[in-house]
Write a structure and sequence with these properties.
The complex is a heterodimer of chains A (260) and B (343).
Chain A: E1 2-10, E2 15-24, E3 29-33, H1 40-47, E4 55-60, E5 63-64, H2 70-76, E6 77-80, H3 92-98, H4 101-104, H5 112-124, H6 140-153, E7 158-162, H7 170-187, E8 190-194, H8 198-204, E9 207-212, E10 215-220, H9 222-225, H10 228-235, E11 239-243, E12 250-254
Parallel strand pairs in A: 3-8, 3-9, 6-7, 7-8
Antiparallel strand pairs in A: 1-2, 1-4, 4-5, 9-10, 11-12
Helix pairs in contact in A: 3-6, 5-6, 6-7
Chain B: H1 6-29, H2 37-49, H3 57-91, H4 104-117, H5 126-145, E1 147-148, E2 151-152, H6 154-178, H7 181-192, H8 200-218, H9 221-229, H10 231-236, H11 241-263, H12 269-281, H13 285-309, H14 318-342
Antiparallel strand pairs in B: 1-2
Helix pairs in contact in B: 1-2, 1-3, 1-13, 2-3, 3-8, 3-11, 3-12, 3-13, 4-5, 4-6, 4-7, 4-11, 5-6, 5-11, 8-11, 12-13, 12-14, 13-14
Classes of the chains: A alpha/beta (260), B mainly alpha (343).
Chain lengths: 260, 343
């Protein structure tokens, strides 16, 4: 569905991404992991063409992103950015309706059918009960759901998530990830998620991309990527890797000084 | 579910339009010379229809040549400053932003004071043009220094504006300290906002900027909503953020420059009207912009009416009234809104 063909990108002098290639198939749940500054967020931004790579090309269903305009991209790729802070307290429904912007064209106001789509999106994300509330009255977890609903209102084929679980407590983390998993499994939405939390990534994702200094260090199933050797090499610190007692997926434990 | 629709915007605009008409009619009947209320309104209506049956020559002159131009000008300036405040708050992502924050007003003030000191104050066109040029010059300088890598960056723009504004304030202080007593009075009144020079030329001069600016900006209402949510959201949904920032900065600055050039620095309107309207109608620009325009016009006409009739025949600077009434009213809205929220 998405084909990334040996892209390189730099903001100024140094390359942030170098010669990165991979494919995302329809219906996959992909995790992008790696240390701070390894290029996760930049990679995501290139996938929705917030940034254009200096070398290489990204194609969506064989069409290069460069040949699509922003509205066309927004109808296919939706993003949930890291931290969202609305300056003035829009109501939940108003924010979800903003996801319809790419479909409005020259219209200034949403139509009845846009409202219907927004309503469905709010229903799936279970935020319908507080659709009339201002966003600043919601908890962090509820707010994340609002932005997922806004992304769904774009009727995308793929959703990009940038560090979606930071600042959420474990209850809201698991709620949120289960929601994403449902959208992936039941609605066939393709998901690409950049995450710092390797335990979450290995538990929820079908495939992981481990970045190191702007290049792909390892790509494959969580079992192949999250190994003691890979993690220690990429992050430069000692960890203990065993298996999740229930799912059997790889699990990372941190080691303090005297345990090494 | 409540959604912002064209119908809702039209209904709210018509209601606020009625409020504006009411304020205009009340304002016509008030002033230092007493003309009976009903007669004032008849004079106005008859002049629109092209006849002159009611009232004496003097009464007609007071209504049609003094009060009406002044009301129209106050309405235009109130509408312009309020809209400009809405835009600057969205552009700079800062609720404390107002039309003067980027130094447009200081530039206008320097231009005006310079013209007063040069003795151009007696010309009917002298001050507005000097003021407008001063404001335009500031807009360009702030724009030049407020960019980063060739792009408008809200915080850089804000810093550039605030610093240039501070520098211009020093110039203003300098000019004031070297000016003569009679010039000083004109300067001070201008700095506090004053409609007593209203004339049809002034209206003709600012009308195009304000009307065109308002209409043009309204087409970008939904994009302004998206940019309030964050730059990435807006970009991602297909908004050309760079272009939007350029358009809003230039249009709002031109509206502000045109407004201050004819009446001086009327404070507070551009800050409290957008916030008050937002507290009542919500932050969606498609509703916020027309409401702010109409409420701003009504508010400034009402304030100016008080300014000229409260201590008549002495006229107060209208800026005194906008601050004295606007401040407490805004605090009241803020407090009651809090109460409603927690219930």
């Amino acid at each position: 569905m998405i084909e990334v063909n040996s892209i390189s990108f730099r903001y100024h002098q140094d390359w942030v991404l170098q010669d990165v290639s991979f494919r995302v198939e329809k219906g996959e749940f992909i995790g992008v992991i790696g240390p701070n500054g390894s290029g996760k967020s930049t990679l995501l931004k290139i996938l929705y063409r917030l940034l254009d790579p200096q070398r290489g090309e990204v194609s969506f269903k064989l069409v290069p992103l460069k040949r699509m305009n922003r509205m066309d991209i927004a109808k296919r790729v939706a993003v949930v950015p890291q931290e969202t802070h609305a300056l003035f307290p829009f109501r939940v429904m108003e924010i979800v309706l903003m996801g319809r912007f790419p479909y409005l064209g020259r219209l200034m106001f949403e139509r009845e059918e846009d409202l219907e789509i927004a309503r469905k999106a709010m229903d799936w994300t279970k935020i319908l009960p507080f659709s009339e509330r201002p966003i600043d009255e919601l908890s962090g977890g509820e707010r994340k759901r609002v932005f997922i609903a806004k992304a769904l209102a774009q009727e995308p084929e793929i959703i990009l998530l940038d560090e979606p679980t930071t600042n959420l407590d474990i209850h809201h983390q698991i709620d949120f990830l289960n929601l994403i998993l449902t959208l992936n499994r039941e609605r066939g939405l393709t998901i690409v998620m950049a995450s710092h939390d390797m335990n979450i990534a290995s538990e929820f994702c079908d495939r992981l991309i481990l970045l190191k200094e702007g290049g792909i260090y390892k790509m494959g199933t969580p079992g192949e990527v999250v190994t003691q050797e890979n993690i220690e090499h990429v992050y430069g610190c000692e960890v203990w890797v065993d298996q999740h007692p229930v799912s059997g997926m790889p699990r990372i434990s941190l080691l303090k000084k005297e345990m090494k | 579910m409540k959604m912002i629709t064209l119908k809702k915007v039209v209904i709210v605009s018509v209601l606020l339009g009625c409020l504006l008409i009411l304020v205009v009619l009340l304002s016509i009947t008030m002033g230092s010379v007493k003309v009976p209320p009903l007669r004032s309104i008849r004079i106005l209506l008859e002049s629109i229809l092209g006849s002159k049956e009611t009232g004496s020559e003097t009464e007609r002159a007071i209504i049609l040549s003094l009060r009406v131009p002044r009301i129209i000008l106050a309405g235009l300036v109130g509408a312009g400053l309020s809209l400009s405040g809405v835009i600057f708050q969205a552009l700079l992502r800062n609720p404390l932003a107002d039309p003067y924050i980027l130094g447009v007003s200081s530039g206008a003030a320097v231009g005006t004071i310079f013209a007063i000191l040069m003795g151009l104050g007696s010309l009917s066109f002298g001050l507005p043009i000097a003021s407008f040029l001063g404001a335009l010059f500031t807009v360009i300088v702030v724009f030049y220094f407020g960019r980063q890598d060739g792009k408008i960056h809200p915080n850089t723009l804000l810093l550039a504006g605030v610093i240039i504004s501070a520098f211009l304030s020093a110039l203003i202080m300098f000019f004031i300290s070297v000016s003569q007593k009679e010039e000083l009075h004109t300067i001070i009144f201008w700095l506090m906002g004053d409609f007593s020079f209203s004339n049809p030329q002034a209206i003709r001069m600012i009308l195009p900027y304000i009307l065109f600016g308002i209409c043009f900006l309204y087409f970008h209402a939904q994009q302004l909503n998206l940019i309030l949510l964050g730059e990435e959201h807006a970009l991602q949904l297909g908004v050309n953020v760079e272009r939007l920032r350029l358009i809003s900065y230039l249009s709002a600055s031109l509206i502000t420059a045109a407004s201050v050039s004819v009446c001086g620095l009327i404070g507070f309107v551009g800050l409290i009207v957008p916030h008050s309207v937002r507290l009542i109608f919500g932050p969606d620009h498609r509703l916020l912009m027309p409401s702010s325009v109409l409420v701003g016009a009504s508010f400034l006409i009402a304030s100016d009416t008080f300014a000229r009739s409260l201590l008549a025949p002495i006229e107060l600077p209208v800026g005194v009234i906008t601050a004295a009434f606007g401040g407490p009213f805004f605090i009241y809205l803020l407090k009651t809104r809090k109460v409603i929220k927690t219930l």
